[in-house]
Amino acid sequence: MLVEVDTHTHTMLSGHAFSTLEENMRAAAAKGLKHLCITDHGPKLGGSAPYYVSGMYNMLPSCVDGVQMHYGLELNITDFEGGLDLPPERMHTLQFALAGMHEIVIAPKDKEAHTNAYEKALANVHIDAPSHPGSVNFECDIERVVAAAKKYSKLIEINNHSFYVRAANIPNCVAFAKECMRKGVRVIVSSDAHFSGNIGVVDKAMAMLDSIGFPKELIVNLTAKSFEKYMEERASRVGA
Ligand SMILES: [Zn+2]
Ligand SMILES: [Zn+2]
User: Fold this and answer.
1) Distance in Å, CA 131 to ligand 1 centroid
2) Most exposed: 29, 98, 205, 217, by fewest CB within 10 Å?
3) Residue 110 Cα, ligand 2 centroid: separation in angstroms?
């Protein structure tokens, strides 16, 4: 186990992932994780759950087999001006929230538009981090996106899944990490698991961070303690 918290995981509610919520919980417990964030895709991604699913999160257990649960979404950025696929009045139902661009939801435009989209998402009080911002399909100004994360005390995601299936993104992931290191911006290193067996798997992303001497204290999900500290910060930010 490389991290005590996985901040980006999917269940069958995403429509194209393969494990149930309960299977993910059990996998997290078996691996010794202390916290697990469930971040199914937002409703605009075909096959994912309807917009009102997050209204049901209060029915779910907050702790299973010693794993603290946080139910959120990986929202879709739906335009380049801060649009997300959850109505503003429902954002408070998210206990953790990522925002990302997926080609099947939004057609790539240009670097300025993508950068603006990430900046606007980071300005939204409910969003914790952009998901896989190293995507080459949505090239952005890395310095500006990291500066926005710093301005709003948000996080930058280093997505382990990218190292396996989106190899073209790796140079951007490295550039994001180096810029975070330079500016003292915190990161989350996540599995983006779409199958329970991949919960907590962050091997390649962590190896990359090690290789550039990335400071451990900037990895928010490395320990339960640092993640809990961030979640306290989050609670006061969103007024929970
Ligand atoms: Zn994604
Ligand atoms: Zn994802």
Assistant:
1) 6
2) 217
3) 22
Ligand 1 midpoint to CA 13 (Å): 14
Q: Predicted confidence band at 1 (pLDDT cuts at 50, 70, 90)?
A: low
Q: How much distance in Å is there from the Cα of 9 to the middle of ligand 2?
A: 6
3-state secondary structure of 202: coil
- Phi, psi values for residue 133, rounded to 5°: -70, -10
**Distance from Cα 40 to the centre of ligand 2, integer Å:** 7
Greatest distance between any 2 Cα atoms in the chain: 45
Residue list, CB under 5 A from ion ligand 1: 100, 131
Return all residues near 4 (Cβ < 8 A) that are at least 6 apart. 32, 33, 34, 35, 221, 222, 223, 224, 227
Tens-place pLDDT, residues 58-101: 999 999 999 999 999 999 999 999 899 999 999 999 999 999 99
| Token duo for residue 148 | 């926005």
The domain segmentation of the chain, as residue ranges, is: 5-238
Topology given in CATH for the domain delimited by 5-238:
TIM Barrel (3.20.20)
Q: How many whole angstroms from 41 Cα to the centroid of ligand 1?
A: 7
Q: Coil, strand or helix: which one is 17?
A: coil
The Cα–Cα gap between 122 and 134 comes to 15
Q: Which tokens in the block code for residue 142?
A: 């890395």
Report the Cα–Cα distance between both ends of the chain, in Å, rounded. 31
Ligand 2 centroid, distance to 39 Cα (angstroms): 7
Report d(CA 19, CA 35) in Å as an integer: 18
Write out pLDDT tens, residues 120-140.
999 999 999 999 999 999 999
